[in-house]
Amino acid sequence: MTDDAPTDMAGLRVGHATRDGDGWLTGTTVVLAPEGGAVAAVDVRGGGPGTKETDALDPRNVVQRVDAVVLTGGSAYGLDAASGVMAWLEERGRGVPVGTDPGHVVPVVPAACVFDLGRGGDFRARPDAATGRAAVEAAAASTPGTPVAEGCVGAGTGAVAGLFKGGVGAASVVLRSGVTVAALVVANAAGSVVDPGTGALYGEFFLGRVAYPSERVHEAARRRLARTASQNTPAPLNTTLAVVVTDADLSRAQAQKLAGTAHDGIARAVRPVHLLHDGDTVFALATGVRPLGTGPLALNDVLAAGADVVTRAIVRAVRAAEPVDGPGGAWPSYRELYGRGAGEGHGEG
User: Fold this and answer.
1) Is a pLDDT exceeding 70 seen at residue 140?
2) What order do you get walking across the sheet with 111-113 strand by strand?
3) What is the CA radius of gyration of the chain?
């Protein structure tokens, strides 16, 4: 298999709407499927999820395909962003047909939110339907293969990963079969993404390319994190969200298995994970462009890759994030404290 640039979302498009400044630090991200939609599934493992339309994705239920998935800030309030995406899809006749008129459709738009309330200073500054419309319009204006913006954008604008600033990350891989598996994540974890003893990112232990900071750099970072942590009000809820996509032809049950195993990718990069005050949620989307292969174990490579790209995407999200110091709190970035990675004063292990 070959690691691809984090731009190939298997034919799907990504759009961000970002709100920051004047009390705002939040946003919405939309993953837009091609015309005709994509097979979809979800697996929720956090104890405090904020979601919309996830029951519709149960393989036992009637909805076969969806046209978009929404990831948003604003906690449960931010789920309002999905209404703007629904309206945009309805205007284009995209959704579940419910009558003889082609315009009579009900778009099914699954959504999940992260907690970022008040991180910009204004508790009431959160995404709404207009934010969702802006994000889906941004997705529609892009083309498949357009680089996915990472870091403090969209739903990752106000994200926090442990004591560090979090954000959006993306990664993809092309398997030997030619099937693409990709992930888009919003890293907003209650748990830590960093080994407290060394300062190395947990996810990089699994990727086999760990950048170990020097003891001097790590000690300085620990002092800085202690200062900022004492200034911030602890957030009651945190969540890591992911959308894992593939161009393989998956059934709904197979897509649900992919969503479930992809949670392993979160557990490799965040410790602890899936707590009662997390809302960790993974969606899976399959466009069905490529055959999966034959035999009962043909799915295994896709399942393994799904977890791997989620881990890579979380690492990328943390490394791409920029620091925030404002009325809602101060969160240093990993890059600010430790540098960009191997080759910047770090040892390679």
Assistant:
1) yes
2) 13-21, 24-32, 68-72, 111-113, 51-52
3) 19
